[in-house]
């Protein structure tokens, strides 16, 4: 019994780190420009496919490929921002919600057309580690580690570099930032790019554990909403903590109740927190 | 208040459309008009909360599912006739919306949108687990149920006329709300909720009521649709993409405008039909819908009817 709990906790932490990473991109975009990126899931799926093709055709290990996927994500995210969002960035929420949703439709539509919806998986075997009676696949452990590293990189970027400071200042007050000589268009594009890059990174890591299709991002997107609301907006640490909470809930609760109730529980938490404390459970404000 | 002239052509036009299939006896045409009517009633009722009040109900399909499930359950296990079951479904959806609205309508903007997505997903996940309403596999009709309507073929015609009735009532209600003091209050909330509150609009009450009304018709539409389909399952009844379709239609035609929502629904049905059967586009219909939606949001946020209204002053009172 104890070993089952230990297994669930370890697995929950590793999965939670990945969920946290998946949510950071959404959190960043939501916090900086008050846009809920409904194409988040589509970009996560795109990350899965990028990693798959890198591994399959160029024989790049998915864990090395993370760097390429992140870079690719930043570029594609910046383009997406400039094409589909910049014009309406100050419009009411409906416009930005629909614009990002239409990006998602385009990606998923093209993805279904090109890749079909047959499940794929990255063929990677790195052995496993046993802790007591629990056997953890190495890919899962590496995924957790890479999630921490990527989050740490992002934290460093956001708090220690000039561009990161620019992003934070734009999120506080866009007009004031503009007056201080910050190119807000470029900064917003960069923030969106990094948000998308992080989403794709999370996708590329998730692809090493689970089989996927172009539609697989949807589940992560919905989880990311829950995590953002749990952890509050605007802090990478909040997202990571939210992710850990969700990962642990998922793995611990299923010891007691059927797995199929988990989504219900998650969305109940989402709606409940939104109603009780919309700024997020762990937010400072 | 000025009553406008829109309904004078809108209702007769719609009745002509409704009568086309029975007059020509074409079953294909009946199916496509049925879909059109369904889309029109969904779009027009979503418009009450989305267009008039300015609250982005992103998971609005949840009410369609709730209404569908209530009616289906009554019809299957208690042999209730479609009409009372449908009304029960509508009322059930409206009550759910009112109760939910008391809680989630306090949220504004994007938070409300996310909450409605959460509600839809939570209800879907719950229904997936409730065995007495069929769980993930859903419920099926025994074909004997259609005997009360004179056989399956007659039952389909019956559901067609029922849908037509719902559509006409939905348009009438949406139009009357727009022209009433209640509608004016809703639009005041859309423009500036705090100002509306200060000026004496009972915003909380208004919003909940608008939400309930905009859930009532989708609830009934769900009941008729699943009666006609003969089965209901959670994945179909609470499919988020249908919510987006509803929003798409409202945006395409024109936000906050009865003619707009109607136009959007009709154009969308044709567009979707064309994209799905066209050999060139059928595999790409999703991507193309996305591109069209993006173009509308970026370059024509007022929609087709809004665009015409902006250009022509004379047509304005005919297009409300």
Q: Which key terms come to mind for this protein?
A:
heterodimer, A: 285 residues, mainly alpha, ABC transporter involved in vitamin B12 uptake, BtuC, two-stranded antiparallel sheet, 11 helices, 74% helix, B: 320 residues, two-stranded antiparallel ribbon, 14 helices, 1% strand
Describe the structure.
The model of chain A has no long low-confidence stretch (mean pLDDT 87). Chain A is mainly α. Chain A contains eleven helices and two strands. Chain A has one domain: ABC transporter involved in vitamin B12 uptake, BtuC (Orthogonal Bundle). Chain B is mainly alpha-helical. Chain B has one domain (6-318): ABC transporter involved in vitamin B12 uptake, BtuC. Chain B has helices spanning 6-24, 27-52, 61-78, 82-104, 109-129, 152-178, 181-191, 193-198, 203-229, 234-237, 240-253, 258-277, 285-299, 303-311, and strands at residues 139-140, 231-232. The chains are: A mainly alpha (285), B mainly alpha (320).
Tell me the layout of helices and strands:
The complex is a heterodimer of chains A (285) and B (320).
Chain A: H1 2-33, H2 40-57, H3 62-85, H4 93-115, E1 128-131, E2 134-137, H5 138-160, H6 162-172, H7 174-179, H8 184-209, H9 217-231, H10 236-253, H11 262-276
Antiparallel strand pairs in A: 1-2
Chain B: H1 6-24, H2 27-52, H3 61-78, H4 82-104, H5 109-129, E1 139-140, H6 152-178, H7 181-191, H8 193-198, H9 203-229, E2 231-232, H10 234-237, H11 240-253, H12 258-277, H13 285-299, H14 303-311
Antiparallel strand pairs in B: 1-2
In short:
The complex is a heterodimer of chains A (285) and B (320). By secondary structure, chain A is mostly helical. Chain A has eleven helices and two strands.
| Percentage of residues in strands of chain B | under 5%
- Tell me, what is the CATH class of chain A? Mainly Alpha
How many domains of chain A? 1
- Tally of DSSP helical segments of chain B: 14
Q: C-alpha Rg of chain A, in Å?
A: 18 Å
CATH architecture of chain A: Orthogonal Bundle
Mean pLDDT of chain A: 87
Overall number of strands of chain B: 2
According to CATH, the fold-level topology of chain B is ABC transporter involved in vitamin B12 uptake, BtuC
- What is the assembly state of the chains in this entry? heterodimer
* Low-confidence segments of chain B: none
Helical coverage of chain A, percent range: over 70%
Tally of DSSP β-strands of chain A? 2
Number of domains of chain B: 1
Largest sheet of chain A, if any?
2 strands, antiparallel
Mean pLDDT of chain B: 89
Low-pLDDT runs of 5+ residues of chain A are none
CATH A-level architecture of chain B: Orthogonal Bundle
Give the termini separation of chain A: 40 Å
Q: State the shape of chain B.
A: globular
User: Helical proportion of chain B?
Assistant: over 70%
